[in-house]
Every structure is written in structure tokens, then in C-alpha cells.
Amino acid sequence: MTALTDDTLPMSPRAMRDEMIVFAVMALLLASVPFSGIYPFFVMQALCFALLACAFNLLIGYGGLLSFGHAMFMGTAGYCSAHALKVWALPPELGILVGIAAAFGLSLITGYISIRRQGIYFSMITLALSQLLYFIYLQAPFTHGEDGIQGIPQGHMFGVLDLSKPTVLYYVVLVGFLAGFLLIYRIINSPFGEVLKSIRENEPRAISLGYRTDQYKFLAFVLSGTLAGFAGALKVFVAQNASLTDVHWSMSGEVVLMTLVGGLGTVFGPVVGAFAIIAMQQYLAGFGQWVTVIQGSIFVICVLTFRRGVVGEVAHYFRRSL
Amino acid sequence: MQALYAQLLVGLINGSFYALLSLGLAVIFGMLNIINFAHGALYMMGAFVAYFLLNLGGINYWWALLFAPIIVGIFGMILERTMLKFLTGLDHLYGLLLTFGIALIVQGVFQNYFGSSGLPYSIPDQLKGGMNLGFMFLPIYRGWVVIFSLVVCLATWFLIEKTRLGANLRAATENPTLVRAFGINVPRMITLTYGLGVGLAALAGVLSAPINQVRPLMGADLIIVVFAVVVIGGMGSIMGSIITGFALGVIEGLTKYFYPEASNTVVFVLMVLVLLVKPTGLTGRAA
């Protein structure tokens, strides 16, 4: 197996400092959005997808596993959170927990099944599982089929934060995103993350060193799926609906695209990629199906010319790890 | 009972398409080490080429059966020469991502010009009508699709397993460098193999045009089912792909009769069961 990223610099204090600076700049920029006049709804949406892409990147960039069904975690968490908020009338924080728990359960099951095969088969299995789930949601009564769950109440988080106010909602989503991002950052720099990288680089050698690689991959899958569920639960408050588009394979494809554009296996790449793709969809919304054509072209161009992605290329140029 | 036989026939027809498509995927994977995500889009192109040939060129179904696979096959070979060949030596997943991008482009372009609704393609005169077999009424065209697909599948199996060309091909799959040293043009063989696999997909498209109408997204969901078929059957053996394809089609047909709610999902559920019992797939070796 050839390495996905050829910059496998060990984690040096300098790299850690660089990443912390970039993180601080990113957090400041995002925190100042409500004062800048940028449409906060757009940024909130992008943040949810950025978190989803980061969770996906944890699996592909650090575990070498390409999941082609990551939308199923987002969609499942979305449906369950939406149901909990609307039908059970739970407060927002519990609604999010229900969504995360659902994604956790789903990732336990799908991880147990899909981790049995490697490489290309893993991708096909995750895609097939997400399609299976799509058909189940299409027929299940609680998802309301083609209509989806609409008009979800946003409510008051912890009884005080009024999420129907855009600014309050924005900061709640931002805090959720930053917390998720830091958790992923912590995971990839932990001993567990190092083992994961060694499995990506050379699985037989990791096995010969005594690591039970299947267990590591399984844990990475569950972490990734659960975090993707967190992104899906947050997205419910932003979009105020949960629909079949969130579990469709084309959504899984978009997540792959975001991460590929930003840079597989880079810390900040998925965030950059998510903002780029969501912005493109906003501006090109009037062009109908040409958006699909453009997305396809970006796939082709990325794979053929810059496989490191935007952030990966920049990092490579400056010989830094980002 | 009539309904059961009718669903069995539908199952056999879907099985024909699964077999033709998974066969092409297996052949391509053997030579190029790429899972061709564009297979569904190229299947759709086969149907559209047949439609264009009839409505723009007045060329009938029988010639379309010949020309559509050739035209789409050439398109495939151009894709291979201009893009796919640069992925040699890279991780498998880049092949998947690239062909996924190609699929999005092709499907997007067709959707722009033809929307999402179906275009009609009528059954050729010679195959219209039906036969009463005593226990069921058999529409001739449907019987033709099953038999013709079976013949094409077996011919492909024969070509790869029993001829000299096939022997070269299998040798090049095992060790391309050594085969090149014997003076065989392996890059050309890779291009032709991709053309062959794509041509099989296009042929399936032409066969399905009179049954399922010609739609830009006709291959998009089908390819995911075919992936599940490939996971179940494994890509190690040509005959394995053919048998798995037909068998899963029949099982799907039976499900439509006995428990219609699960007919969309039965192939995926079977995939899960196979993975739990025998992770390498029914015919596959350890990957």
C-alpha cells in the first residue's frame, strides 16, 4: 500500500506550535463572523459539514480507510435528534445526545461488519450499507419518507440559550465545532493516533509488532462515526429539518470531495474543503445539474493533479505539517 | 403462481444486468486494479447511444447492440488513456475517487439535457409479443434478454479462461513486468481490457433500454447494488461473478413476490450476512 501522504513528519514542537497558531486564527476568524455581515446561516452550515469532513478524515487520513457511506451517520443522528426534539419534546442538549447515541450505535454495527474487509472492499461495503439504510429510512414511518421531518423546534439549550436567535445559535454551533475539532486533534496526536498512522503506512508490520490492528481500526471507525453523528445533530438546529438527502450516497460523495479538496490526512484540510464546497454550492445554486458536473470535475482534477489537496500542497511547500 | 413466475423472470433479467456489470468490474479490477465507479454511468451511456442511434440515425436495435458497446468502449478507452493510466502504482482509492468524479460528470451532463424522466425506447418488431408456456406468459423480449446475456457472459468467460488472448491477459494480471519482457504490449492490453469491461456495461444498457426506459440516473443506484454483488461474490473468478449475479437477481425476484417491502434491500442484507459468515466473499480469496 502506498502512503496517502508523503509528508510523515514526526510531531515536533514546532509543528505543534504552528498548528496551535492556525487553530487560534481560525477560531478568532470564526468567532468574528456575526460582526462581519456574512450570512451566519451559510457559515453554520459549513461548520457542520466541516466537522463531518474532519470526522471522515480521521478514518481516511489517519486510518487509511475510505468510507463511502459517512452520510449515514450524519443522517441517522439528524433523524433521531429531530424526532427527539419534535415528538418527544426533549430540550436541545438531550436531543443532541440522542443523535450522538444513535450514530454511536450505528457505527458499532456497521463498523463490526465493514472492518472485516480492507481497501476497496471496505469502501464498497460502507456504500452498500448506507444505501441499505437509505431504503430503510425511505420506508420507516418516523422519517416521513420523502417529506422528511420538518419544522423542528430549536428550543432553549440548558434552559437559557435561545437557539432561535441566529447569533446565539451561531456560537453554540461554533463551540460544538471547535470542541469536536479539538477532540479529533487530540485523538490523532495520541498514542492511539500514532498506532493508527502506522497501520495506514504498513499494516502487516503493525501486526507483526503485536498490535491488534482490527481493534484499532474498529475504534477509529466508531469514533469517526460518532463525531459525524455530532455534526448531524448540530445540523438539525441549523436546517430545522432532517431529510433523505442527508443519507443519500451523493452526500457521502460530497464529504469525500470536501476532504479531498482540502487535503486527506491534514488537520485543517477538511475545514477548508468544506467551506470551499459549500460556498461553491451557494454561488452556483442557479446552475442546476452543472453543479454535479463541476463537482465531478473537481474530483478528477484533484486526483490527477494535486492529490495533497489545498492545505496539503501549502504545507508541503513550506515543509510544515498542517 | 403466475405472479411468482413473472417475478422470477424479472429477477432473472435484473440478474443478467448484475452479471454483465459485475463481470466487467471484475475484468477491469483484475487488470487495472481500479474499481470502476463510472460503470453505472457508462451503462447509462450505452442505453443513450442506442436511443440516439435510433432517433437521430435511424439505426435499429440490432445494430445498436453492436455499435453502442463499441462507441462507449472507445469512450472508455479514451478515459483510460487520458486519465486512468496515470494512477498506476497509486493507492486503490484514487481510482475509485477518479471514476466517481467521471460518473458525476457524465450523469450531470445527461441530466442537464434530458432531465430525470425516462425516454421511451420501443422493443424491436421481431421480439414483440409473447409466448404461452403453459404455466406462464413469457414476453419474448424478456426471454431474449436473459438468454442473450447468458451467452455474452459465457463467451466472455470463454475468451478469458480458454483462449490465448485470455491467457496473456491473466498472465499480465499476475505479473505485468514479466509479460512485457515476453514482448506483449501490456499497456495496450490494459486499454483494451478497460474497453471490454465498459463495452459489457454498455451492452447491458442497450438491453435494458426497452424494459426500463432511458434515464440519466438509471445506472446511479444500480452500480451500488452491483458493488454489493461484487462484495458477495468476490472478484477472484469470472464464473463466480456470473453465477452470483444471476443468483442474486433471482433471490431479489423471489423477495418481490414473498415480501415486497424488502425487495430494495435484500441484496444488501445478504451482503451483510455473507460478510458475517465468510468475510472473503463466496468465491474470493483473501484480499
TrEMBL record, chain A:
Subcellular location: Cell membrane
GO cellular component terms listed in the entry, alphabetical order: plasma membrane
Protein name, per record: Branched-chain amino acid ABC transporter permease
Cited InterPro entries: ABC_transp_permease, LivM-like
Membrane-crossing residue ranges in chain numbering: 20-42, 49-74, 94-113, 120-137, 168-188, 218-237, 257-280, 287-306
Keywords linked to the UniProt accession: Cell membrane, Membrane, Transmembrane, Transmembrane helix
Keyword Zinc: no
Record has Endoplasmic reticulum as a keyword: no
Entry's Gene Ontology molecular function annotations: branched-chain amino acid transmembrane transporter activity
Membrane-topology descriptor: Multi-pass membrane protein
TrEMBL record, chain B:
Pfam families reported for this sequence: BPD_transp_2
TM region positions: 6-27, 34-54, 60-79, 91-110, 141-160, 190-211, 223-251, 258-277
Subcellular location: Cell membrane
Similarity remark: Belongs to the binding-protein-dependent transport system permease family. LivHM subfamily.
Protein name stated in the entry: Branched-chain amino acid ABC transporter permease
CDD domains: TM_PBP1_LivH_like
Domain of life: Bacteria
The keyword Protein transport belongs to this UniProt entry's keyword annotation: no
Signal peptide, first to last residue: none
Keywords noted in UniProt: Amino-acid transport, Cell membrane, Membrane, Transmembrane, Transmembrane helix, Transport
A cellular component term, taken from the record's GO annotations: plasma membrane
Membrane topology: Multi-pass membrane protein
Gene Ontology molecular function: transmembrane transporter activity
